[in-house]
């Protein structure tokens, strides 16, 4: 798919943890290098804990702070890019729709919303999928991974026409998942999470960053679906 090099973008990233926190520095560098107007919105309701320092992009000085705030303040100051952070979980379709329903406030041509899903639950993916279906113009990049493997899918919709299927259409089991939103989990449930490795998080973030590079810098993305294995050091196109 092609994205005009002068088309402004509003990039909303949900999740600033294992994968999201590694995507964000690349996102700012790419946005800084592009010739288009970019606004970045970082959303996460989680707080930095000491255990996060093992595989997430935080330092000891960040412990006790909100993840979205830490990322936004750190990188917006360095790169001077318009940024907003939302220090809570986005669990409302109406709120997400509002964030992505960008008006022509940046001049001409009309801006487009880019949604980056760096979440670890399918309930949030269902929400993102529903918002994708409601909007006429949207780019939705979703990243998902386990301990060593994962996938990144870029859904694209322009003028009400789906040019590339979103993740829930590629992996329809997502739509039947009965997971809870993060805010609905008990303390005991939150303490139990699927194992992930820093290698898988970095693989996922690299794939997302590559898609963003071709979208924002070159205006042309040829490959919208990839699967990877950090253990096998492999990244392949998915039909």
Label this structure with key terms.
7 helices, alpha/beta
Overall description:
The protein is α/β, with parallel strands linked by helices and 239 residues long. The protein has seven helices and nine strands. The chain has helices at 20-33, 67-79, 93-100, 122-134, 167-170, 187-191, 198-218; strands at 9-14, 38-43, 83-86, 112-117, 138-145, 149-158, 161-164, 225-229, 234-237. Strands 1, 2, 3, 4, 5, 6, 7, 8 and 9 form a nine-stranded mixed beta sheet that branches. Helix 1 (20-33) packs parallel to helix 2 (67-79) and helix 3 (93-100) crosses helix 4 (122-134). It starts with 8 loop residues before the first strand and ends with a strand. The mean pLDDT is 92.
Describe the structure concisely.
This protein is α/β, with parallel strands linked by helices and 239 residues long. The chain has helices at 20-33, 67-79, 93-100, 122-134, 167-170, 187-191, 198-218, and strands spanning 9-14, 38-43, 83-86, 112-117, 138-145, 149-158, 161-164, 225-229, 234-237. The longest helix is centred in the last third of the chain and has 21 residues, at 198-218.
